[in-house]
């Protein structure tokens, strides 16, 4: 357990606000409910109790929608019957909360992820991301909510890649997609909407490579993702960054028998997300990192970056900053720090370390 997750678990105000978040619907006004994820990230970066309460009030007054009243009582044995039924999110949340209280979060996560499609792109990767934050905060209500989101809004991508030639490296696979898709774009406003168009596109199916077979797959994905976001500043690719970090945490709960197939599901979802924004051409991570090192000779400390991110009401700024700090603790690379610096510079005109 890291210092940041320890801070989350011991934060009484955070737990109280996460409890109150159950009054909100799965979706918000024009978005999904980012409130609990942002609260966890703020707490992980050391935000004060007052700041947590301010952000909760901001979200409640600006974006939150009330949760639907209970409709039915769902027995745990029957939760599969509610796959894809978004109106039953609150009912599923209650179902999973009761089961977690009885059997523990580890057993329930393993069972649910073994029964329903892993579907990492569900609610634009937010079901997965929310689950990871719930685990860090050790908040059973948030774990139940994220599992409910995964079931109620399940976005499974039924593409079998077992027989496809595997890409030699993560970057090679995405390069192959970029070359094959030739900048093709897709209609739609929301991330999932565009991704649905991608996975039904024959051109994507023809160019989709098999998953690279490497022990360091998640490390490679994480570095590719932060480089891709730094180069494009694309909103969908930002979700690839946070989604990969979330997968690192959630996949630890799976047994080896199912892990490989779930990694394949993740690979396909990330490829579809990348293609949904035109599969932009990228320079190699090493070349981009070198360019950024020249540009940013003086780096801000993480404490400075956290201070700036904590002041923001932009939940994506908050989550990306925190995610990059987690990633750099797993595989040291100054690219995470430099990308966060640039993002925050765009948010605040006068940015000094």
Brief rundown of the structure:
The protein is mainly alpha-helical and 353 residues long. 63% of the residues lie in helices and 1% in strands.
- % residues in beta strands: under 5%
Quick one: overall form?
globular
Indicate the mean pLDDT.
94
With strands numbered from the N-terminus, the spatial order across the biggest sheet is 1-2
The parts where pLDDT drops under 50 for at least 5 residues are 349-353
Number of helices: 18
Radius of gyration: 20 Å
The end-to-end distance, rounded to whole angstroms, is 29 Å
How many beta-strand segments?
A: 2
H-E order = HHEEHHHHHHHHHHHHHHHH
Category by helix and strand content: mainly alpha
Task: Characterize the largest beta sheet: strand count, sense, and whether it forms a barrel.
Answer: 2 strands, antiparallel
How much helicity do the residues have? 55-70%
Number of domains: 3
Tell me what you see in this structure.
It is a single chain. The protein contains 18 helices and 2 strands. The chain is mostly helical and 353 residues long. It is globular, with a radius of gyration of 20 Å. The protein folds into 3 domains: 156 residues, no CATH class; 107 residues, no CATH class; 61 residues, no CATH class. The C terminus is likely disordered. The longest helix is centred in the C-terminal third of the chain and has 21 residues.
What attributes characterize this protein structure?
mainly alpha, two-stranded antiparallel sheet, 353 residues, 3 domains, disordered C terminus
């Amino acid at each position: 357990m890291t210092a940041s997750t320890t801070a989350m678990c011991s934060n009484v105000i955070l737990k109280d606000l996460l409890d109150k978040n159950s009054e909100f619907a799965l979706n918000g006004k024009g978005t999904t409910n980012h409130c609990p994820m942002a609260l966890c990230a703020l707490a992980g970066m050391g935000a004060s109790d007052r700041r947590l309460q301010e952000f909760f009030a901001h979200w409640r007054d600006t974006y939150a929608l009330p949760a639907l009243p209970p409709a039915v009582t769902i027995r745990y044995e029957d939760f599969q019957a509610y796959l894809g039924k978004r109106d039953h999110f609150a009912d599923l949340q209650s179902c999973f909360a009761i089961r977690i209280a009885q059997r523990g979060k580890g057993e329930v996560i393993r069972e649910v992820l073994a029964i329903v499609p892993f579907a990492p792109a569900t609610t634009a990767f937010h079901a997965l991301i929310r689950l990871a934050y719930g685990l860090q905060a050790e908040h059973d209500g948030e774990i139940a909510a994220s599992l409910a989101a995964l079931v109620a809004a399940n976005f499974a991508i039924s593409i079998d890649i077992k027989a496809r030639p595997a890409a030699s490296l993560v970057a090679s696979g995405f390069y192959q997609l970029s070359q094959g898709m030739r900048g093709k774009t897709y209609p739609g406003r929301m991330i999932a909407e565009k991704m649905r168009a991608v996975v039904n596109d024959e051109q994507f199916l023809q160019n989709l490579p098999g998953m690279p077979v490497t022990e360091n797959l998640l490390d490679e994905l994480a570095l590719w993702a932060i480089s891709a976001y730094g180069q494009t500043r694309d909103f969908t690719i930002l979700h690839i960054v946070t989604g990969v970090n979330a997968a690192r945490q959630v996949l630890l709960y799976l047994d080896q028998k199912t892990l490989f197939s779930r990694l394949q599901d993740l690979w396909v979802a990330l490829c579809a997300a990348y293609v949904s924004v035109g599969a932009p051409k990228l320079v190699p991570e090493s070349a981009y990192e070198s360019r950024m090192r020249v540009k940013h000779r003086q780096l801000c400390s993480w404490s400075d970056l956290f201070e700036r991110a904590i002041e923001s009401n932009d939940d994506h700024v908050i989550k990306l900053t925190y995610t990059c700090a987690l990633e750099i603790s797993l595989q040291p690379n100054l690219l995470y720090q430099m990308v966060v610096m640039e993002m925050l510079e765009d948010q605040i005109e006068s940015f000094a370390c």
